[in-house]
Amino acid sequence: MSKPVVAIPCDFREFDGNVWHVVAHQYVRAAVEGAGVMPFLIPALETGNDIDEILDRVDGVLASGARSNVHPSLYGAEAKESDGPFDPGRDATSLPLITRALERGVPLLAICRGIQELNVALGGTLASEIQDQPGIWDHRKPDVKELDVAYGIRQDVIVKEGSCLAPVLGAGRIRVNSLHRQAIGAAAPRLAVEAVADDGTIEAVSVIGSKAFAVGVQWHPEYWVRTDTPSASLFKAFGDAVRTYAAGRLAA
Ligand SMILES: N[C@@H](CCC(=O)NCCCC(=O)O)C(=O)O
């Protein structure tokens, strides 16, 4: 069987005097090496992406992290300048892709911005600048240039007993990295909380009643997929779900 294909929505970024549709290499590398799938980068277009045409051609969706935040209007909040930067092209691509993938039973792994998109797509809200809330740690990306330090593993999350992720990651404490200033505020009704931080921040969810693998994590398993066991296990589980879906698509 040819390698299954996974859609990864791009970010719309401006640098070097031009505008680009981009995905950070770590997600592409983890898709190839961790999940054993072929990445298919989807442009961050505000209009023009045919979501069903895309999903007709893929066997999974990987919603990656990004510096930009989901626009607050998408979860009924007032947009403040401080809530930026925004990426309307990413929002207009990733949220419909997540929604339709769930409807069609296409496997989904949502990371960082991706779990926030998943929550908003299913009707939840986001909390901003969570580090400013009493009792909440600073989950933000460390202000350093070295990526290995920025994505360094530095925080516990507790995977719930009996959760979907418990067989994948093991129930109880695992160590993860943390690079976010937003988090799930009100969890969407269809989301089951799978893991939390000691300060109560929701760190992983699954979709209740989903037709296939449908998981979101607030941390970044893609970065250490080569060396960190929980990271590797999560990407292997996603890849296995994608291969199962692909086999069914071929047989149809
Ligand atoms: N913008 C959101 C999501 C954070 C996220 O996806 N971080 C990964 C990228 C980190 C970076 O390159 O800055 C939030 O801040 O919560």
Automatic annotation (TrEMBL):
Keywords: Hydrolase. The keyword Transferase does not apply. This is Gamma-glutamyl-gamma-aminobutyrate hydrolase family protein. GO terms for molecular function: hydrolase activity. InterPro entries: Class_I_gatase-like, Peptidase_C26, PuuD-like. It holds the Pfam family Peptidase_C26. It comes from the Bacteria. The keyword Cell membrane does not apply.
